[in-house]
Specification:
By secondary structure, the chain is mostly beta strands. 15% of the residues lie in helices and 39% in strands. The protein has two helices and ten strands; from the N terminus they run βαβββββαββββ. The protein is globular, with a radius of gyration of 19 Å.
């Protein structure tokens, strides 16, 4: 699968709005939005400096429009200013209607992150990176999801459960299929799931998904999961999978799926 991670510290995260994250009006809780944003800010800071960070403050959090049940959330975080032991991360949260592709800015704000090891490590933080997060081509449903592996996600050896990895890869596949087809979809099968290396507690997992082939009503989605040690920068592919996702109409019956663009027909699963 020809998927390449971003080489810099910027972060892009995609996720879905689920019922338990919304109020009685079907809008995403503000606290949930801020929790997502804080996670993105931490990941951007840790990747930039390769040091542990804690949140010192959040400034100018503006809630412009709601994200609603079933919307795709896309968050981006980039380091904007750097001091000796602290830095500022600008985080933006956009919502996307999975069926129409319409997008709008929901929330944005600044998070000030402080190096947690500043007493033991007096070295100054690296300067602001010059590189910026590249845009993803949405025509094949290309999506990225990043998460941190917490203790509850792991076995007694501190490794990510296989079932947890499969759940995350399946969600990434569904998001890619929705973004490509702009139709309701349902999972039909999972194929060629291979676990190559373990992912460990405290590491970031980075999932890249995209539609790689289309039949009459089905889409084959390739998903690659990478793990990254946030302190050392060591990065490796830990799992690959392919999923068959079927486009369905309003009654739930299989419906013709959009074809891939000519550029995409040469993308093959590895």
């Amino acid at each position: 699968m020809a998927i390449q991670p971003s080489p810099d510290s910027a972060i892009r995260l995609c996720d879905l709005v689920f019922p338990q994250q919304t109020n009685h009006q079907g809008s995403l809780f503000g606290g949930t939005a801020m929790a997502h944003m804080d996670k993105v800010a931490f990941l951007a800071a840790a990747r930039h400096a390769r040091r542990p960070f804690v949140t010192a403050s959040s400034d100018k959090i503006e809630f412009r429009a709601p994200a609603r049940l079933g919307h795709l959330l896309e968050l981006t975080g980039q380091v904007r200013m750097v001091g000796h032991h602290s830095l500022s991360v600008r985080v933006q949260l956009d919502a996307e209607d999975m069926l129409t592709g319409e997008r709008h800015r929901c929330t944005e704000g600044e998070f000030v992150m402080v190096a947690a090891d500043r007493k033991e490590n007096p070295e100054a933080l690296p300067p602001v990176p010059r590189t910026r997060l590249p845009e993803l081509d949405p025509s094949n449903g290309a999506s990225r999801m990043v998460e941190i592996i917490f203790p509850g996600d792991t076995d007694h050896l501190g490794r990510l459960y296989g079932g947890g990895a499969m759940e995350r890869m399946g969600k990434a596949a569904v998001i890619a299929a929705y973004r490509h087809a702009r139709m309701n979809v349902t999972m039909a099968a999972s194929d060629k799931i291979s676990f190559e290396k373990p992912a460990h507690e405290g590491e970031m997992i980075d999932l890249h998904s995209e539609v790689i082939d289309v039949g009459r009503t089905s889409m084959r989605v390739g998903v690659q999961m990478d793990a990254e040690n946030l302190m050392s920068g060591d990065r490796r592919t830990v799992a690959r999978a392919e999923f068959v996702i079927v486009a369905v109409d309003e009654s739930g019956k299989p419906s013709p799926a959009p074809a891939l663009a000519a550029r995409q027909r040469n993308v093959a699963a590895s």
